[in-house]
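FYI - complex with glutamine, inputs then prediction.
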Amino acid sequence: MLTEKRYLVLEDGTVYEGYRFGGDRTAEGELVFNTSMTGAQEIITDLSYTDQIITFSYPLIGNTGVNTEDNETLLPSARGVVVREACSEPSNFRASESLDSFLKRHDIPGISGVDTRSITRKIRSGGVMKAVMTDEENHEELVELLQTASFRTDQVKRVSTKSPYISTGPGNRVVLIDYGKKENIVRSLNALGCDVTVVPYNTSAADILRMRPDGVMLSNGPGNPEDVEAGIKTVKNLIGKVPLFGICLGHQLIGLACGAKTFKMKFGHRGSNHPVMNLKTTKVEITAQNHGFAIDGDSLASTGLEITHTALNDKTVEGIRHVKHPVFSVQYHPEASAGPHDSEYLFGEFVKMMEIEKEANNA
Ligand SMILES: NC(=O)CC[C@H](N)C(=O)O
């Protein structure tokens, strides 16, 4: 039974009172919400949540506990976790610990016993905002501090791999640029036989091309894509030289590299059931999403890019391709984890693209 008080203090002065669980520290960050009913472990270990406090709108979190197989990274960097109820006695044959113990081990504070649906409604109407999770009872100064605090811009640098490494496979050679990648991108490529070399976010195009890859994959990652200047430059210099496939932040970087614009959304898309239309087939895919920025569709004219997928909820751009070069990307997550597998086929399309290019180059 949790009894010790903890508070979630929002930039607009609202205070939610709840109970302390997980790590024991004060933590500030951007307060966002995720509507997934399952997959809390994958969500919390997704590095795209770096510096963010995740509110789960679904009311019971952690009932299957945490296991050793479903981590998207071994060093999660979300700032905090907000739940209505944190299950203290998980039941699942794979569970190795509770959510509370997992968060304690990673020093990520949590607050439970708050009305997460009301927080979600607040963010939907007011937009994402800064918040702090604290055990202090006096909040006036904290609100003032929050209102003047500015966000860091170095998230990708902090979470990217420091040196290259290989996850071997017998097939196509893929260089995966790590902006804060989800492990399931590596697993999905390996499952199709790809040999994956993971490289740091600031690796140059020349260094990548020297590895003679059949294709380059641009990963998901935290923060504002405009802050990842090294990434934009590398992508610019790779387009037309090697097949490219981008996911989420990687997709935004392709847009920026071609001259399109990105913008910060009011409250983003975070959940496991976002409907997206594939404009070529008019088929609807139910997708896993986690993004707060998006490519501005109106800025795509004369970039050489065209829209391939759109979000059915708000008509934002969800997928693009280059009309001349073998380059495509999606704003959502074909690697799922957590979420549905409708768009897993995109990894297959990337492999096909690499095969076609190889054949064309050998002809
Ligand atoms: N999952 C991601 O790659 C997110 C991309 C970017 N940080 C955004 O919030 O839009």
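The chain has two domains: 5-148, 155-362. The chain has ten helices and 19 strands.
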